[in-house]
Each structure stands twice: as C-alpha cells, then as structure tokens.
Amino acid sequence: MNKAKAYSAASAVAPLAPEAIQRRDPTDRDVQIEILFCGVCHSDLHTVRDEWSSFMPTTYPCVPGHEIVGRVVQAGAAVTTCKEGDLVGVGCIVDSDHSCDACRHDVEQFCPDATFTYNSPDKHLGGVTYGGYSESIVVDESFVLRIPTNLDPAGAAPLLCAGITTYSPIRRWGDIKGKKVGVVGLGGLGHMGVKFARALGAQVVVFTTSPGKKEDALRLGAQDVIISTDAEEMQEHAGTFDFILDTISADHDINSYINMLGLDGNITLVGAPEKPLPVSAFALLFGRKSVSGSLIGGIAETQEMLEFCGEHDITADVEVIPIQKINEAFERMLKSDVKYRFSIDMASLKDE
Ligand code: NAP
Ligand code: ZN
Asked: What's the mean pLDDT in 152-170?
C-alpha cells in the first residue's frame, strides 16, 4: 500500500486538517494518478458537515474531493485507455458493477453498487473511499477520463462534477437553441450551466440573490439577470421560461421558480439542500409543468462533456487556492463568495 498526504475532517464540526491516508497498490486495471488540482464542490461541504445524514451519513475521517485532475504516474498492465504522463480526470464515481441496467445504459451513477469517490464503502481496502483532497489516487481505468490538452488543468478540474452535473440535464432536455433557459444560483454549478446553455444557443437568464454578480453573469453568457429577491423583477418574467436549472444549495421557495415556467415547462433540481422543498400542486397543475432531478452523469457522457469543453474552450472560472486555505474556502462558499469555483493546487500539500 502507498501512503498519501491528504486533508480530512475528523467529525462534522472539525476543520479539515492534514492526515496521511492509505491508497491501494494498483492492480492490472488500475491507474495511479498524481493529483494536480481538485475543485471544491458544495457537496464536499455538505458531506464533511454531515448535512445529508438522512440519505448518506458521513463516515469519519472524511477526505472529500471529486473534481480531480492529475497526471498518470503508473498504468497497470491491462490498462489501454491512458499511459504514464497523460492528463486525466476523476469525477464522482470510481467503480460500479458493470452489469446492472444502469451500467448497461451508461448511467453508472445509478448503479446500486456504485462506489463514489469519497464516503463510499471501499471494496479494496475496507472502510470508506477517500477523495481528491490528496496528493494521489488509484482508480480503475473505466472511471478515468481524458482531459483535452488545450484546457487549463486548474479550470478543467471542476468540469468533473460541476461541469457534468449541469451539462447532462441541459442536454437531456433536448434542443435548447433559442429557448428561454433560467439558471438559478450563480455558484460553481450555476456558472457552468450558464456557459453550457449559452454554448448550445439558449437565451440564458440568471436568477441570483447576489446583485454584485450581475456583471459576471452577463460576461459568462447570460442575456439577462433577475435579482430573485425583487418581486417586481420576478413578476415581469413569470410564465416565460422553457427550462430552469436550479442549483441552490440551501432551503428556498421552489414555487417562485415554478411560476416562472411557461406551458409544459420543466425545472430540474441539481442543488441538494439538506431539507425537503415543499412543492405547490397548483403551481404545477396550471401549465402542466414538471419538476425533475438530475445526478451528475455517466462516464461516457462525462467524456462527451469534456470533449465539448475542449472544442468550445470551456473551463470553470476558478480561484486557485493552496490546501491550507480550505477551511476559509468552505466559509466563503457558504456566503456565496466564490468566483466561481475554488480549485486546490495540490502542490501545496507538499508543504505539509
Ligand atoms: P455553490 O458554489 O455554493 O453555489 C450555490 C449558489 O446557490 C450560491 O452561489 C448562491 O447563488 C445560491 N444560494 C446559496 N444559498 C442560497 C439561498 N439560501 N437562497 C437562494 N440562493 C442561494 O454550490 P455548488 O457547488 O454549485 O453546488 C450547488 C448545490 O448542488 C449543492 O447543494 C451541491 O451539493 C449540489 N450538487 C449536486 C450535484 C448533483 O449531481 N445533483 C452535483 C454537485 C453538486 P447566488 O449568489 O447567485 O444567489
Ligand atoms: Zn460535486
């Protein structure tokens, strides 16, 4: 086994701190990766603080991180998809059963036996899996993605979760060219949603609670920005949207966004607040509207998204931080003070 430096949380109230963890010896099918950058997803914070305890309680110590970009340092004898020196990515899943309906339909994230990158039973070592806030990781080649070489690695890391989580529901909606698409919340997921919807030709409108993000929203590709706390502004756009992507990480009134939809409009939730969101039946009935959810994306679709980003030169807007600033970054994320994703430079872990 290999020892790796990492940052972990010892409990739901403990700050993240340095810790040495074990990584398995690579098998023939495994890829050993030196992690260069890891994005900071709000799911990392939810998990570290055990905010999803009713669905997936956190096992401590917890090493979060599922937006990983790194270099292959060793590829097992049976590995065919990458070689030493390649720039690769790892997202939210590191294993699945390869045989169930979900796996056969390329939606491994719904495999009943999926192994998530962190806080999931570790089939090799026992205990739970440890994520990307670490200097290295060992992953089955089926879950290792190719990163287009024209993309900046720090900005590419968030594509592995924030990217695919927004790309997948937008693509599934259908041809959004010329459609009026709302993105609710301009954070890590939201700013990627704006970039993808714009690149696919939609008329993009951002809903934000932060007036200070208005100019950025326009620069990122939105044609309009609605301050969601302004009832008049909201009323002006009521009933006009074809599709809305809701990325809010906290409790909020989803009915006010359902009211923004036109006939047969759909709002898809990707944000995962701790508490249930009450939905008004009447808000849905009038206009035959629907509410859906979406969870990351399968491996094939994640690769497709990365190629799309390569072609359109799309990466996340990142603030690169050393790992030593991670606790501060979590607090800033809670204040919606991220422009628009923290990306940890893992070279900083060498100082520990
Ligand atoms: P983030 O960077 O913190 O962005 C969330 C944004 O939501 C904030 O920037 C803010 O935008 C808005 N917001 C926050 N609190 C709010 C409140 N009380 N009322 C209204 N708006 C609020 O988080 P993220 O990393 O994008 O993640 C967003 C959510 O998606 C999290 O719950 C995360 O766990 C979840 N997630 C789900 C998946 C999936 O597969 N479904 C994948 C990754 C993450 P404004 O300042 O613009 O208002
Ligand atoms: Zn994530």
From this structure: 98
